[in-house]
Each structure stands twice: as structure tokens, then as C-alpha cells.
Predict the structure.
Amino acid sequence: MKIATRGSALALWQANHVRDRLRADDPSLDVELVIIKTKGDKILDVPLAKVGGKGLFVKEIERALLDEAADVAVHSMKDVPAELEAGLDMVAISTRANPFDALVSRNGESLAELPDGARVGTSSLRRQCQLRAARPDVEIVSLRGNVNTRLRKLDDGELDAVILAAAGLERLGFGDRIADRLEPPRFLPAIAQGALGIETRADDTDTIARVREAIHDASDAPRVLAERAFMARLEGGCQTPMAAYADWDGGGLHVRGLVSSVDASEMLRGEVRGLGEDAEALGRQLAEDLLERGAGRILAACIAAG
């Protein structure tokens, strides 16, 4: 079985994790990694919102599946657009790691402890708007690159703090550098952050069966489905500051969502509760609630501003 993956340290960790899970389920299986450099890996000096958004990290990998150069693709689900390429299917969602964002600061300060005017690195519009709402005095610096690159810029003194996904830091052994965990209700994470998605050709029944048996988490999948349904209804991408987080609460699914202007002058929040079997309907319901309250106008303004 050939697994297509990006070549960053984090992407390779994820692909090797999936490989190990597949081999644990079937020790006789021969698994090979196929490393692919995506457009998102090549363009590092421009914010994602200005060069194509989430699809930059998956299109070349999906092409490898369609061309049968690979059988399986491993994605960070937060990087996957709402619409998949025709002929492909996201057949498994992994057990979700820490879904939240984390602040890493040069001197170990929490977000509240950062000095006035501190330079905080992040290129995510979602993180930027929530950061502006929490600390309007800090200076936000656009920051691209892999985890090691971003931490190096912090350590070299270019920044006072960076905001990264906690899961990526923990998977690469940097969990001890987290100074502040940015959790709800203060911050909502990226849609599906912390979960891995396993994509295959839709007609590759043998691979689908192997992957689902070894990888799929039936408890965490509804959480991801609810968040992605919220994103899909709002036609979200990297140009649109939105967030969602679904979790189990008393046997049901609790879904929270957010839509904001980039400058955080307008921020809409909402939440719904319901059955896990209705996960996608719950995500759409929450999106409709925010749309009725003006989310469409806010998102359209974000896209027009570019």
C-alpha cells in the first residue's frame, strides 16, 4: 500500500502513524510512503488566504490518488476543503488529538501576560480575529512555514510569541513549550483540527476496508462531520474567519461556532446540541443560525477585502 503525504516533519509523523496502525492491524502489509511537495509547501511568503487557501495542501496529493501513484492519502483534516475531488472519498477519521490552539512565547508568558505591543506570529485569519478580540494591543505578524520554522523565528527574537496547533506541537515533541492553551470559550479551534483524514479512491473497496478497520474512530468522526458541515454551509475557507468545535456533552453532541470580521469588530457566536447521528444536520443548523444573524454579510466583506 502506498501512502501519499507531504514531506514536513509533522506530515511525516502523521503518515508514519497511519502506516504503523495499518501494520498493527495486518503485520504482513507492505506500506510505502510517497512524499509529495504541494503548492502550499512551495509558497511560504504569502498568506494562504491570498494564494488559494486550504486546497493548496491537498490538490497534488489527490492527483496522486487519481493517477494511482498512491492508494491512500493522509491529511490534517483542518487543511481539507469542504469539497473533495470527484472519484475520491474520505473513508476514515482518526482518533482526534488535542484540537485546540496553543501559545508559545519566548519568555513563557501566557496570552494575558504578554507585554503591550508584543509581536505575535500567525497567518490564520481565524486566529487573528480571536487574538484581536482578546488582546487588541498586540501586533500580529503574518507567519508561514512548518512548525520548526515558526519556532525558530520565535527563538531568533523576531517574535515574542506564536500561535500554533497544540496537536502539531505535541506530536513533534514540543508540548513542553506550550505557555498557554487557547481553549473554548476563549478561543475556538480550526474546523477538524487535531484529526487526521484518510482519503482513497472511492472504488478501491479493499483499501477502504483495511483503512476503516485500522484507523476509523466512530466516536470522533461525528465531531468532525458536524464541524465540516458548518464550514460547508458557510462556504468557508482561509479567506473567511470562522471556527467550530463539536464535543460530546451528556450523551449528545454540543457544537459551537464563530464567524468574525478580520478586525474582530463584528463577531457572531452560536451553539446547538443534538444527537450524534444528526451531526451534519447540527452543523448546518448552527450555520443557518449565524447566517440569519448576519454571517453572510460579514463573510462576504472578508472575501471582498481579500
Remarks:
- The chain has a mean pLDDT of 92.
- The CA atoms of residues 103 and 242 lie 19 Å apart.
- The first strand starts at residue 2 and ends at 5.
- The radius of gyration is 19 Å.
